[in-house]
From TrEMBL, chains A, B:
InterPro entries hit by this protein: Isoprenoid_synthase_dom_sf, Polyprenyl_synt, Polyprenyl_synt_CS
Record-given protein name: Polyprenyl synthetase family protein
Family: Belongs to the FPP/GGPP synthase family.
Gene3D superfamilies tied to this protein: Farnesyl Diphosphate Synthase
Record key words, sorted: Magnesium, Metal-binding, Transferase
Cofactor(s) listed in the protein's UniProt record: Mg(2+)
Top-level taxon of origin: Bacteria
Keyword Metal-binding: yes
Species per Swiss-Prot/TrEMBL record: Streptomyces durocortorensis
Amino acid sequence: MSAQAPAALFDQNALRRAVDTTLTEFLTRQARNAHRRGLPQQAAQVLGDFIQAGGKRIRPVLCVAGWQAAGGTDTPEPVLKAAASLEMFHAFALIHDDIIDASDTRRGRPTIHRQVGTEAAILIGDLALVLADDLLHTAGLTPAQLTAALPIANTLRADTIYGQYLDITHAGQPPAGPGPALTITRYKTAKYTIEGPLLLGAALAGTSGDTPCGLALSAYGMPVGEAFQLRDDLLGVFGNPDETGKPALDDLREGKATVLMALALQNANPTQRRTLVRNVGNPHLTHDGAQQVRAVLTDTGARAAVEDLIDQRCQMALATLDTADLPPHITAELRFLAFSATARTA
Amino acid sequence: MSAQAPAALFDQNALRRAVDTTLTEFLTRQARNAHRRGLPQQAAQVLGDFIQAGGKRIRPVLCVAGWQAAGGTDTPEPVLKAAASLEMFHAFALIHDDIIDASDTRRGRPTIHRQVGTEAAILIGDLALVLADDLLHTAGLTPAQLTAALPIANTLRADTIYGQYLDITHAGQPPAGPGPALTITRYKTAKYTIEGPLLLGAALAGTSGDTPCGLALSAYGMPVGEAFQLRDDLLGVFGNPDETGKPALDDLREGKATVLMALALQNANPTQRRTLVRNVGNPHLTHDGAQQVRAVLTDTGARAAVEDLIDQRCQMALATLDTADLPPHITAELRFLAFSATARTA
C-alpha cells in the first residue's frame, strides 16, 4: 500500500477534526441519554467543553499512524473511535492530575475542580475513564480487534496511574537523581502518549508488539515519549503561559521530581542548592523566587543538559525510522511528529 | 439442570472465599509486577488490604446467581473472575465516595484517604477502576461472553457515577421530595448492587435483559436494590457503628438527600422542620443534635414509612420470584438474598 499512499492519506488536521466530531457527538449523545433518564447532563457537558477547549490530539493521531504503519488503510470509523477513546482517557488523566496537583488553570481556563468543585471533578474524571472504555467497546471493532486492543489499553491505563502515583510519592522532596525522575516520566507520560497509542493502532491492524513493526514503533515511541515529557518539564518552568495555557509558577510550586530538577541539584554549589531547596515545592513561591530558580537551572547547566537529552532521544527515534520498514508516508509523519512533540512551545 | 441442582451448587460462603482468593491473587500479582518494573507496589497493596477488610461480596454472589439463573452450571473460573471484577469496581466506588463525602471510617478502619492522603486515594480508586476492567477482560471469557458483558458493565459503571453526581448536587440542600431521592438511590446503588450483577451473570450464560429470564431478574433486582439502599439510609442514621463499621454521625453530617429525610421534611411540623434544617448537613453536628434528628425521623413517621417502602419492595421481589421460571435453587437463593440485603444490620 505504500506505493499508492500519498501524504493526503494522513491529513493530521482532518484527522483532528474527525476526532473532535466523534468526541462531541458521543458526549452529546451521553448528555441527552442521561437527561432522558432523569440523570444530570452536566457531567458529560463539562467534560465535552473541557475536551473542546484545547489539546493537540496527539494520541489519536498516533493511534491512526500505528494503524497505517501496520498496513491499515485510511481511517475506518471503528479505528477513529478507538483513537478518540485515547483522548477521552487523556481527559480523565488531566482532570484528576489537576485535582492532585491543585492546579488552577488548564488550557487557559479554570481547571474542572475550580469550575465545579473537587467532588464533582473527581466524578467527571471517573466518568471520562468509564466513557473512554465505552467508546472503545462500542467502536464497532471486530472481536479479534477488540481482543487485541483491550490488554494494550489496560496496560497503558494502569501504567499512567502507577506513574502518577510514583510522581506524587516523590513530589515535594528533592529528587534522588535523574534515574528515578526518568522512570516517572516513562510511566506517567511516555507510554500513554506515544508508544501506547502507536501499539494500539498497530494491534487494530493485527500487528502485535513483538513483530518487527511493533518493535520499531516501541523503539521510536519510548524516546519520543520521554522527550515529550522532558520538553513539558522545561515548558513548565521556562514556557510562556500564554502559549502553554498553564500559569508560570504551578510546576515550581508543586516541586515535581523532574529530571531537570534532579540534574540541577546534582550540579549545584551550596548557594545554588539552597536557592532550589528554599523555592521549589514552596506553595507561596513568588515570581522573584521563580526567577532565581530559573537562573540556577540555567547556570548549573541543567537546562542545557535536558535539551541535550531531548535531542538525543529525538535522534534515537529518527535513527529507528531510518532502519524500520514502515510505509514511507508514515515514516514521514512520524519524523514530523518527533519534531513537533519535542520542539514545541505549547 | 434444575433437577440435578442441590443447594450445595450455590454455597454462598464458599463462593465468597473463592472471590476473595481471586482478588487477593490478582492484586498480589499486580503488586509484584509493579515492583518488578520499578513501580510502586503500595497502590495495589493498599487496595488489597481495603478489599480484605470487609464487605459482603453481594455483587459477585449475585453475578453467579444470574449466571446459574440463566442456565449456567457451577462457577467456572471465567465467571468467577468476571464476578470478582464487580467487587473491584465496588472498591473504586467506595474509595472515591469516601473522599467525596469526607468520611473518616469505613469497614471499621480509617478510610483510604485518611490512610494515604487524598491525592494517593484518588489514584488508588482510579487503579481499582482500571483493574476492574483488567480482571474482566482477562477472565478468560469467550468473545461472545465478552461482547455481551461489556455493555452491561459500562452501563452499570456510568449509572453509578451519574447517581453519585446527582447525589452530590443534591447534598446539603433539603430534598425536594421522595421522588428525586429515589432516583438517586436507583442509579447510585440499586442498579450496580443487585440488577446489574444479576444481568451480567445472565449475559455470560447467553441470556440478554429482554428475555423472560432477564426481565424477571430486573423485576426482582430493581426493588431489592432500592430496598438495599433504603436500609442503608436507615442504618446510616439508626445503625450500630460497631456493626456497620461507619461512625454514627457521618450520614447526618453530610446531609444526604435520602428518601428518609425527604419524607420527614414532608411530614414535619415547623418545630420539627427547624430541628432537621439546623442539624442535617451540619458538619459540626453533635451526638445530642443527632438524637434530636432521630427523634424527629421517628416522630414524623418517616422511619416507619421507609420500613414500609422496604417491605413493599421486598414483597414485589418475592412475588416476581413466585411467577418467574427460574431454577428452584436460584429462586431459593434469591429469596434469601432479598431478606438478607434488606433486613440486615451491617
